[in-house]
Amino acid sequence: xxxxxxxxxxxxxxxxxxxxxxxxxxxxxxxxxxxxxxxxxxxxxxxxxxxxxxxxxxxxxxxxxxxxxxxxxxxxxxxxxxxxxxxxxxxxxxxxxxxxxxxxxxxxxxxxxxxxxxxxxxxxxxxxxxxxxxxxxxxxxxxxxxxxxxxxxxxxxxxxxxxxxxxxxxxxxxxxxxxxxxxxxxxxxxxxxxxxxxxxxxxxxxxxxxxxxxxxxxxxxxxxxxxxxxxxxxxxxxxxxxxxxxxxxxxxxxxxxxxxxxxxxxxxxxxxxxxxxxxxxxxxxxxxxxxxxxxxxxxxxxxxxxxxxxxxxxxxxxxxxxxxxxxxxxxxxxxxxxxxxxxxxxxxxxxxxxxxxxxxxxxxxxxxxxxxxxxxxxxxxxxxxxxxxxxxxxxxxxxxxxxxxxxxxxxxxxxxxxxxxxxxxxxxxxxxxxxxxxxxxxxxxxxxxxxxxxxxxxxxxxxxxxxxxxxxxxxxxxxxxxxxxxxxxxxxxxxxxxxxxxxxxxxxxxxxxxxxxxxxxxxxxxxxxxxxxxxxxxxxxxxxxxxxxxxxxxxxxxxxxxxxxxxxxx
Length: 570
Description:
This protein has 570 residues and is α+β, with helices and mostly antiparallel strands. It has 4 domains: 2-101, Tumour Suppressor Smad4, CATH 2.60.200.20; 114-141 and 150-326, 2-Layer Sandwich (Beta-Lactamase); 333-400; 408-555, Heat Shock Protein 90 (2-Layer Sandwich), CATH 3.30.565.10. Helix content is 36%, strand content 24%. The chain contains 11 helices and 23 strands. The strands form 5 sheets. Strands 2-1-11-10-7-8 form a 6-stranded antiparallel sheet, covered by helices on one side. Strand 10 (89-92) and strand 11 (95-101) form a beta hairpin. The protein is elongated and about 95 Å long.
């Protein structure tokens, strides 16, 4: 399977699957298979086609520019037609898409040819000549000592800064924290007075200052001014620059910004990643213009500093891209989850509204002809659907909020009895015998009675639905209080249709319902969430065709016990 994933642009986070055998156009017009919300994209900008080998097998995909106004770019090169490979970056307007294709079967089992031989055979053919611990290997990353040669000291210093940079970029997914840490490392290594990192804005394409720093202990009343000339050169040429005295470099406009800003030495390098330039790093030694004629100091920046800054910039750019890709993936998952939620809830609410509309129609017709039986039948339909939408709203509220239960002194027998009384009418209508045997051994406990009522209600509702239209259908409830283990088990058993072993874990997934149009797929996940908030769990056992048993087990906290932060954890 091949996909195009939007990494930058207004459609960031969207993923498009490429269908083999069908040319797929990309553009701004709604007639395109892949419609992009980008003003710099033509109405019909490009087309992705799949190709065939000489044997008629799928041979990959190629992208063709459809004479667009701004062109189509693959890996920063303008193309007319280009065969795509996994990892290629497709730039259309300001929208950057990443092409990926599932690896062929030939590469799926590369471990098969690997054999592990016995120690006797190894001893006959080879021997260990040197071993080294992790601590010994890490000595290469230690700071240089006074006994090291100048060359070795510089090499060790450079290796250490790159190692620390690699650690910094791998330990955070927050771009602001990442860039600030990069600047801190640079200032530890280079005698810079000021520095900043600018990131390219995905919407405007302009460089936006994201992080800045002044050397600790040195204060300046003047703002950090960066030469537009230097920035433009670095971004356009994708090269780092070192300016020792910008007035002597013919590439810079010496009548422009550098002289006025008072910059004597500066290093500016691009943040060049896999998919292009994502920003720049700029550092300089600051001397106010008024002191330029009276203050002279040796050069602080060298070509070696420039080389290492370019390497640091590349590492930082890779991290920025990875973080952006991760954010886009999270956004895509959120959009998918929101879409699924809206679609599922809309379906259930539509069914409930249809029921209310049908009941209202019966009430209206009954009133017209004075038939009270018809009115009562219509009102029962309306009441039933009002209860359904009320339960749906309560489940949505319970599931959407993270909360700690309000532990209060309550009687578990009474809570279960309330549920049974509430559900008796529904059980009778379904032809189900609903029974509860209270336990005199259960003391007053600490739990959230409202939440526990909701959790038990959902389980009992499912049990009744599972038994409906079965002979001698019954649902029984009981409490098992274990004083030794300090647990309370609420057991709900039915002799309904049962659950297949492979489906038991699925029933606690959101919107996973076995009731068809009648179920919301929220009841069991809500019950599980409530039990876990109480420090408990739901244990399910079932035999298909025979019935199911749900055990709601939770810590038995006596009402005499004070409520603390440890109460929920047992």
